[in-house]
Amino acid sequence: MARRSLPLLRHLLARSTPRRIQTRSVTYMHRPGDGTPRAVTLIPGDGIGPLVTGAVEQVMAAMQAPVFFEKFEVHGNMKAMPQKVMDSIRRNKVCLKGGLVTPMGGGVSSLNVQLRKELDLYASLVNCINLPGLRTRHDNVDIVVIRENTEGEYSGLEHEVIPGVVESLKVITKFCSERIANYAFEYAYLNNRKKVTAVHKANIMKLADGLFLESCREVAKKYTGIKYNEIIVDNCCMQLVSKPEQFDVMVTPNLYGNLIANTAAGIAGGTGVMPGGNVGAEHAVFEQGASAGNVGNDKILEQKTANPVALLMSSAMMLRHLQFPAFADRLETAVEQVILEGKYRTKDLGGTSTTQEIVDAVIDALD
């Protein structure tokens, strides 16, 4: 049974069985002042971004969650992230964002990559998990993909050597490889995960991916209670679509992580339901976990049928990051209940509901 479904199961059991003994989770003893509302930078973004971030705003208001948003209009075709937005994120330490379009070619760099590099958000985390009630080809999928976010093929070091010949550099450093490995093993340790798998192509890129593997192996020695193994990225893709339940935590260089996370998301129910975030030593940015489809298309936007589940679940991750665990549990449980009942689902999940209908159903399901 998937780990994150336990709050929902407790909720359903409480409703369906006689209650002889009142059950309550272990009390969270907060520090004085922990209930003070926290400011969060909000970037609605492009396409369906304003729809799904608007869904989060409605649910947060209904929960009376101790957060308030500083909202900024940002679009992917801008040359740089506005300074006032960066100042807000640095001040608040936490950001929630919708998708930002990355123009193809033309010399315009990705604002998503700019944001990760400028804030040193070196770890991307995507949780790909079966949600109760959502039928998929594979059961018992609960994969966490942890991706190095600042170097590799995303270094942006490209130039034209001569007309018709372009050189693009992949940069791998021991420093960045060690810190992403440390983050992956620390995550596994703190979340009672049993295995970390390093994804690589060291059989071909012997120096670059070899350095990544060497770093992972060194870190693995410090965590003797966690199983460590390695897999070549092409074999990994085949194993993912045939037997995904074998994977637990996966740690990857930058490009491989993007591909693996989107593949795993598709296996576990689609990109519309997978939460994720990016974190560094001082800042965190939460967004839809898998990048595929995060800005939608004109038809979805016109019909207002974008799936808000992924960003709602990412918001629960954000609440937990802000040390509001009870609010995070309430939100996750409400979303899982709506999925389990199956009455309200957007088209990507086989239904006909609008974004607003999903929002209303989640609000009604809140304890």
Characterization of this structure:
The strands form 2 sheets. A 10-stranded mixed sheet has the order 2-1-3-12-11-4-5-10-8-9, with helices on both faces. It has a two-stranded antiparallel ribbon with strand order 6-7. It has 12 helices and 12 strands. The chain has 2 domains: about 35-130 and about 270-365, Isopropylmalate Dehydrogenase, CATH 3.40.718; about 135-270, Isopropylmalate Dehydrogenase. It is about 40% helix and about 15% strand. α2 (about 50-65) packs across α10 (about 310-320). The longest helix is centred in the middle third of the chain and has 17 residues, at about 175-190. The protein has helices at about 5-15, 50-65, 85-90, 110-120, 175-190, 210-220, 235-240, 255-270, 300-305, 310-320, 325-340, 355-365, and strands spanning about 40-45, 65-70, 95, 125-130, 140-150, 160, 165-170, 195-200, 225-230, 250, 275-280, 285-290. The chain is α/β, with parallel strands linked by helices. β6 (about 160) and β7 (about 165-170) form a beta hairpin. Residues about 1-20 have low confidence and may be disordered. Its main location: mitochondrion. It comes from Cajanus cajan. Belongs to the isocitrate and isopropylmalate dehydrogenases family. It holds the Pfam family Iso_dh. This is Isopropylmalate dehydrogenase-like domain-containing protein.
